[in-house]
């Protein structure tokens, strides 16, 4: 089992907490190795600003899968997000840091501005993720040589609908043809 993340900080924390994990800093655009299964969980897809780069991620996944290998993706449900977006949440961490999360939809992306207020001042970060629909994702899978095989609307295995909270898809890498 291997895991990658762009964040050196998160990989370092992961290794400190779970020293036996085989995790490293990496980029989904260039997955190294060959795998029977690849998982993309908790909307870890769609962060590139262009469709071409996001498609390249799926091409990289397809290239890293063995023929007949499986790809599972847990992604937001664009319909649910558009209909249920909470524009502002405010919380407080155990150390007293106040956290504000401002959310909006701009063009085809969900934009989340995260602001931390603590004794050291104010820090802010921004996340952007594309609002791909289930149909768009399945079309992108096919273009990458990944054959959609099924979907769920949550982790309990519920049938996917436009009202589902999640879009969980699985696909099989094309086996190719033997001549």
Summarize the structure.
The protein has 179 residues and is α+β, with helices and mostly antiparallel strands. It has helices at 8-17, 51-64, 78-84, 134-143; strands at residues 3-5, 23-25, 35-40, 65-76, 88-92, 98-106, 109-118, 121-130, 146-152, 166-173. The model has no long low-confidence stretch (mean pLDDT 94).
- Give the uncertain stretches in residue-range form: none
Helix content bin: 10-25%
How many β strands by DSSP?
10
Task: Sum up the overall morphology in one term.
Answer: globular
Q: Which structural class fits the helix and strand makeup?
A: alpha+beta
Residue share in β-strands: 35-45%
Q: From the alpha-carbon coordinates, what is the Rg to the nearest angstrom? A: 18 Å
Give the ordered list of helices and strands. EHEEHEHEEEEHEE
**Global mean pLDDT:** 94
Give a quick account of the main beta sheet: strands, pairing sense, barrel closure.
4 strands, mixed
User: How is the largest sheet built, in terms of strand order?
Assistant: 3-4-10-9
Tally the helices: what do you get? 4
Separation of the first and last Cα atoms: 33 Å
Describe the protein in words.
This protein has 179 residues and is of the alpha+beta class. 23% of the residues lie in helices and 41% in strands. The protein has 4 helices and 10 strands, in the order E-H-E-E-H-E-H-E-E-E-E-H-E-E. The protein has helices at residues 8-17, 51-64, 78-84, 134-143; strands at 3-5, 23-25, 35-40, 65-76, 88-92, 98-106, 109-118, 121-130, 146-152, 166-173. A hairpin with a 2-residue loop joins strand 7 (109-118) and strand 8 (121-130).
